[in-house]
Structure formats: C-alpha cells, structure tokens
Amino acid sequence: MNEQALNLVPMVVEQTARGERAYDIYSR
User: Fold this and answer.
1) How high is the pLDDT of residue 9?
2) What CA–CA distances, in Å, run from 8 to 4, 11, 15, 16?
3) Would you state the pLDDT for residue 23?
4) What's the DSSP call for residue 2?
5) Buried b (16+ CB within 10 A) or exposed e, 3-27
6) For the whole model, what pTM was predicted?
7) CB 27 within 8 A of CB 21
8) What's the distance, Cα to Cα, between the start and end of the chain in Å?
9) How many Å apart are CA 1 and CA 27, to the nearest integer?
C-alpha cells in the first residue's frame, strides 16, 4: 500500500462512515 492510499483510507471512512466498506474497496 502506498502512503497516499493510507492517507485516503481514513478520509473515506469518515465520509462514508463505514470503515469496513471503504477498506474493502482499497483492499482489492
């Protein structure tokens, strides 16, 4: 995982309010 991806993960989690969903998308 790149540094940029890690920075975007938390942002998406807050916006979507669904860490599991957001994480799944980045995991693929």
Assistant:
1) 61
2) 6, 5, 11, 12
3) 59
4) -
5) eeeeeebeebbeeeeeeeebeeeee
6) 0.17
7) no
8) 11
9) 9
Q: Give the residue carrying structure tokens 């309010």.
A: 17
Q: Are 9 and 22 in contact (CB under 8 A)?
A: yes
Q: Which amino acid is at 12?
A: V
Contact (CB, 8 A) for 21 and 9 = no
C-alpha–C-alpha distance, residues 24 and 10, integer Å: 13
* Domain boundaries, given as residue ranges, for the chain: 1-28
Tens of pLDDT, residue by residue over 1-28, are 566 665 666 666 565 556 666 556 656 6
